[in-house]
Write a structure and sequence with these properties.
The protein has 315 residues and is of the alpha/beta class. The protein has 2 domains: 162 residues, NAD(P)-binding Rossmann-like Domain (Rossmann fold), CATH 3.40.50.720; 120 residues, N-(1-d-carboxylethyl)-l-norvaline Dehydrogenase, domain 2. 46% of the residues lie in helices and 12% in strands. It is built from 12 helices and 9 strands. A 6-stranded parallel sheet has the order 3-2-1-4-5-6, sandwiched between helices. The chain has a 3-stranded mixed sheet with strand order 7-8-9. The chain is globular, with a radius of gyration of 21 Å. The model has no long low-confidence stretch (mean pLDDT 94).
Length: 315
């Protein structure tokens, strides 16, 4: 892979996020071949110009291979399980860029396995979801060798708004876990103050409109306003996934001797929501539990509100 020629790319994992990011690379004109455990989910990429293969092993001759899978065991399977990317005896990619959310321990294990094949491994977790990708606001944190990052930065730049190299080794994993812990704390705080305002006689739409236009408003608070106002919990991130990331974050806090009392309390509330059966809904469903604890059943306001991520209509 050189700076004056376009690298060949592989993509492993074409779920909701992986599919959209692979599409951005294809739209940017890159030569991309994709694999997904359920091939049918990858097939639509063929219509966008991608070649589809049946095993990760078939991507070993690509210059750069991106990975976005759901769990640590999935990452290990596609790396060095049966027909894994690193099991090809003849070829190995120059760089693997992994955007899965996994622990530092698993990331380090995969990094060693990649190094044994002469492959550089970059941890590159992302912040966002398909709507954020569509709005061009996805962000990426990357850790690993700085020179390898410099080579793949133009590829990652196609993903969205910004790409940040945060250091060597596995530190990007900690950055992502810290980010997701903060995500949980913020959504719980939003649920609490919104329910407080509603119990005092203020509509959720009016309160959040005021909040979003104040210095306390954010891209996130605007984005979650439709869910909090109209109780549309079509999942972007579920309670079980959030709970898993809190477990990882609190484990890291224990190891690093960092007290996290607010995160610890929030973790209990998230686990309570999971115990109440909210397993497939978006994590904004925490507002339903907050209302229940406040003595009432929350209802949709059926009010048109914007998320701040609307993609302008093309001419």
């Amino acid at each position: 892979m050189t700076t004056n020629e376009s690298p060949t790319l592989g993509w492993i994992g074409t779920g909701r996020m992986g599919f959209e990011l692979a599409t951005r690379l294809l739209n940017a004109g890159y030569d991309l071949t994709a694999y997904n455990r359920t091939r049918a989910k990858a097939e639509p990429l063929n219509q966008k110009g991608a070649k589809i293969v049946d095993t990760p092993k078939e991507l070993a001759d690509r210059d750069v291979v991106f990975v976005m899978v759901s769990a640590p065991k999935d990452l290990e399977q596609v790396m060095y399980g049966e027909n894994g990317l690193l099991t090809n005896s003849e070829h190995a990619p120059k760089v693997i860029v992994d955007s899965s959310t996994v622990s530092e321990a698993v990331s380090a294990k995969v990094r060693v396995a990649a190094a044994e094949r002469g492959t550089v491994f970059l941890a590159a977790p992302v912040s966002g979801n398909p709507a954020v990708i569509a709005a061009g606001k996805l962000t990426v944190a990357v850790s690993g060798p700085r020179d390898a990052f410099t080579k793949v930065e133009p590829l990652l730049a196609t993903f969205g708004r910004s790409v940040t190299w945060v250091g060597e080794g596995e530190v990007a994993r900690l950055v992502k876990i810290a980010h997701n812990v903060y995500l949980g704390i913020v959504i719980q705080a939003l649920a609490e103050i919104t329910v407080l305002a509603e119990r005092g006689g203020v509509s959720r739409a009016a309160f959040l409109d005021f909040l979003n236009d104040s210095v306390m408003g954010s891209t996130f608070s605007k984005y979650k306003t439709p869910a909090l106002v109209n109780l549309d919990f079509n999942a972007t991130f579920t309670i079980p996934l959030l709970s898993k990331d809190f477990d990882l974050g609190l484990a890291a806090a224990h190891d690093l001797k960092v007290p996290m009392p607010i995160a610890s309390a929030t973790s209990q509330l998230i686990q309570s929501a999971g115990g109440a059966g909210y397993l497939t809904e978006d994590f904004a469903v925490l507002i339903v539990e907050q209302a229940r604890r406040s003595g009432y059943v929350i209802e949709s306001e059926n009010t048109p509100v914007l998320s701040g991520l609307e993609v302008p209509a093309s001419d």
